[in-house]
Amino acid sequence: MKLVVRELEGGYGNVQVLRGVNFEVNTGEVVTLLGRNGTGRSTTCKAIMNALPGQRGQTRWGTTDLSGLSSHEVARAGVGYVPEERLIFTNLSVDENLQIGRKAPANTSTPTWTQDELYALFPRLHERRKIKAGFLSGGEQQMLTIFRTLMGNPGAILIDEPTEGLAPKIVEVVAKTIAQMRKRGLAVLLVEQKLAMSLSISDRVLVMGHGHIVFSGSVADFRADDQIRRQWLEVN
Ligand SMILES: Nc1ncnc2c1ncn2[C@@H]1O[C@H](COP(=O)(O)OP(=O)(O)OP(=O)(O)O)[C@@H](O)[C@H]1O
Ligand SMILES: [Mg+2]
Fold it and tell me: Taking the model in full, what pTM does it have?
């Protein structure tokens, strides 16, 4: 299966951010979406979730046409979303947050995640499972947000800057968890600033600039292309 994005356009009010974004993410691969701050990476994720009023273009997950569905229906169709802001219920325990996230997969071929197997990826959260999520550290809340989305058993997942502001130890847990998603056959779109980390777990790289994808290639191709990095990523 594939997550397919075609000619995606949209923005905020009169400001057009996406000017025809095209790419695909296959199951079992991690694709990193790079770009300077403010280029529209988060906007791309929002548009895939159909959360951008007035957006145009086509989005498809496997045989399901996502265009025109509500964000909730996109999620139900099997596309999970971990937004930049950590979305947890602060007054509920870690366990309760995970239980609320639980959902049968949209597609029978999608593997289901168990709470135990997620806790095994980050035992610290298991130790704190009875604690209200509001008392967790930033890194623990981020992992809980990711785990909660995985409890919904998505086939594809969009993860927007999961490691921002996190300590190196937690960044490792995020990386390990994403590697596990890949192994389980999810289609992963990762927006990430930490280049070394994201490249180490990615299969392909997309670079955004001027509202388009300006580079699409393997991690090796990206590493070999200094020009792309200079033109579209480094801050001059
Ligand atoms: N809710 C909003 N209303 C108006 N403009 C917005 C809104 N959200 C984002 N923008 C603008 O749209 C452009 C793209 O923003 P987006 O959040 O997609 O960037 P990004 O690539 O995710 O970068 P970063 O996460 O570093 O900010 C930016 O110029 C931003 O200021
Ligand atoms: Mg962003």
Answer: 0.96
